[in-house]
Structures are given as C-alpha cells and as structure tokens.
Amino acid sequence: MTDHETPAPRPGSDTPPPATGADAAPLSPVEEIADVPEGCVVVGVDGSPAADAALAWGAREAASRGLPVHLLCARESFALPTGVVESALPWEALEDGGKTILREACELAQRVAPGIEITCSRPWGGPAQVLVAASDRAAFLVVGTRGRSRRTAAVLGTVSLQTASHARCPVVVIREDHAEQDRTHGSAHVVVGADGSRDSERAVRFAFDCAAPSGRVTAVTAWWLEVVDGVVVTTPESAEWERVVSGYESRMRAAIGDVPADYPDVVLETRVDRARATEALLDAARDADLLVVGSRGRGGFAGLMLGSVSQNMLTEASCPVAVVSRLRT
C-alpha cells in the first residue's frame, strides 16, 4: 500500500501549502492525480456507508479483472473569516481524520479482496473535481450514493451526478444499501442499453467486461412512437410492427458489433421493447447485478453532459449503475 501525501494547510489559510521549497507553487488536483496508477480502479472514499459499499464493489470487481485499486480521499480547503483564532482550528484532527479514513478503507479492501494491490492518495480539491481528474488515468471510477428515491436526484448532484456527467471513463455508482455479498464477480448478469448511439457502443463493451468471464449480458433497446406509411404503429405482430422491430434489431446489432466474439463464455440476450427507454431498462434490470448505460442516447442534446435516461437510472435503478461517457481526449 502506498500513501501519497501532501503537507497540511497553514492554519487560517484556504489554500494548500507549497509542494516543495519556499518558492514552489501549490499542487493542483491535476498535478496530484499523477500519483494515480494508469489503468487502475479508482474508488472515492470518505468513511461513509455509501463509500464503503462502493469500495467493496470496486475491490471485488478489480480483483476479478486482475486490476489494482486506488483509493482517493479528497482534501477540501475552506475559506475562513480573518478573525478566526488559529488555536481553535482542529487542523491536526482534520489531517488525522483523513489518514484514518484511508487506513480503514485499505483494511476493508483487503478483507473483501485479499491480496489486491492498493494505492491511495489525498489530493486537494472537491470530491467530484479530483475524481474527474483521476478519470484520465483510471480504467473506471466507483462512487457511492445514498438510497434510491425521487429525492435522491438532488442529493446525487453533489458528487455522483457531477462525476458521472464529466468523467472521461466509465463511472459505477453504488447505493449504500447494496447487498454486495450477493454478487459473484466474474459471472454477473449485466443489462446494457444499446440504442446505437456512440456512447451505447462503448457501454456494450464495458458490460461485457463486467460480465466476463462467464456471466450474462442482456442488451435492451426500446421504442415508443413510430409512424410507417403515415400510420402510427400500434398493432402487435402486424407487418408495420415487425418492420419497426426489425429496424431496431438492426440498430442494436450494429451497436453490439463483434464484441461478443471477444467473450466466448458470456451469454448474450437481446430485447426490443415497446416502452419508454427508462421503463424498459428498469424492467430488464430488476434482477440484474449491474445496469450499464451511455451518458447520452440517440435523443440527447449535444450540449448536455448526461441524458435524462442516465439520470433516471442513477436515481431509480435497484442495482448498481454504470455510466459510460465520451472518450478521453
């Protein structure tokens, strides 16, 4: 285990101290993220039950893939009133608290995935900020979130939603009540939205990665309102209905491509449902171990970082959700 540390802030200061020497500039989050090993699984930790659930999932998934884990605990700086008495600030307690979080997180990771390679760091910046910076080097990120409800959408925006919206690698979001012991990594049932968008094509690859070596992937696409020859299609098994379904099946096959050939022991199932996309995915993922979606589907606006379907999955799905976004630049 390696712990890359930076010095504590001076009492009364809202910026980190110089990295080295009197004239050195403070490290930015991007500079400190250089400590993140290339191709590792990065897990955001803060000592909360949600973060512990994310760590358990991430450690087991990393072990099943033979990847190292990097634990990232953000150190936020706060602006303080000029009249604050320095001796009243618990700086040492704050520093010790961060070290305790990382120590306990390392112990948890070793318990759930014995022998796994672990590194850790405490870069300066907000949690979402440093996680997004780490996404340039990570295979994928894992973060925790509280509960599942309509109200969660507002709470989610603080870290999970911001990270999923801006990360340049897949982001897996784990609820704190996730029963991790029920999941067998390496033989999971993974549901993936495959609507033919560029993000969904990358989502398919990630879904197979998570199901490998011997799991099952269910690829889902959905349609709701289609018009053929000027007539709205509503009659199941009619020629028009079959024509619509055939078109969506072709689009799904294009999104899946040759990916299954690289995973010969993963079973592939496909579904073309007449339903809203959100309804179709939630129904298919009811008993799944993981739901994978692209950050934006075919109907997404170019300016949006995260589509409405992806946001709905993060707040409503009963299983962990992975959001697969744009490629690194």
TrEMBL record:
Record SUPFAM superfamilies: Adenine nucleotide alpha hydrolases-like
Pfam families assigned to the protein according to its UniProt record, in alphabetical order: Usp
Limits of the UspA domain: 41-175, 189-324
Comp. bias (Pro residues): 8-19
Family: Belongs to the universal stress protein A family.
InterPro entries with a match to the protein in the record: Rossmann-like_a/b/a_fold (IPR014729), Universal_stress_UspA (IPR006015), UspA (IPR006016)
Gene3D superfamilies documented for this protein: HUPs
Name used for this protein in its record: UspA domain-containing protein
PANTHER family linked: STRESS RESPONSE PROTEIN NHAX, UNIVERSAL STRESS PROTEIN UP12
Coiled coil (UniProt feature): none
Organism, scientific name: Mobilicoccus pelagius NBRC 104925
